[in-house]
């Protein structure tokens, strides 16, 4: 299938998912699962290829007797996952691109794989943190900005309507500058960070009408939220009050024992001395 044909198919497709399937994102150096929407039957040749920039195909894997075998350039990085697909490991930047599952020479599934390198960011539990992301928006037809965490929505802002959509748990704590389009600053601010906010965050802009996504720069951040430990120098007012009450209790008990024990003893001693005279 030529590049022109692929572009034509995509242009006629109202939704990227109808033929391309979901965009697949994966972190540099890790692994990703690539699966076809259906399997080949009979003796048809089932192949996974990567479409290079010059439109030439590069064989990634070939299914032989029900088992996926790696292509020449993937001998140590492809492993069988199921009759539908494989796992590609130790991802590098050249793994970015368009992948085609073909059955008897006909395309079954197209997958757009995006490899990202994440910037490490850390924050203490309950703190505020900014995940940086920028994009040259001047003169660009941009529909929205979108942040995802581990593949799920964090926040999406529509440029024209100014409508904001939040993912579960991020309403009121995640925000992007209202001037993101004018300034090209797509950075995400997270308030009151919780341990469960830890994960990989990806930043995109959505092009108008054509459903294309473009990554910001840097495209991703790996957020680590660490548990907050009590400050040993910080004294809680309630603890101070408790200590004060304990001190007064000790004083009161001491006075009581003095009156009960020492007082009568002194009286008896004085009476005895007086009687001895």
TrEMBL record:
Membrane topology: Single-pass type I membrane protein
Signal peptide range in chain numbering: 1-21
Keyword Acetylation: no
Pfam families, per database record: V-set
Main location: membrane
Gene Ontology, cellular component aspect: external side of plasma membrane
Record-level GO BP terms: cell surface receptor signaling pathway; cellular response to lipopolysaccharide; immune response; negative regulation of T cell proliferation; positive regulation of T cell proliferation; T cell costimulation
Name of the protein in its database record: Ig-like domain-containing protein
Entry keywords, A to Z: Cell membrane, Disulfide bond, Glycoprotein, Immunoglobulin domain, Membrane, Receptor, Signal, Transmembrane, Transmembrane helix
TM segment ranges: 248-273
Domain Ig-like: start-end pairs: 106-224
Compartments, as annotated in UniProt: Cell membrane
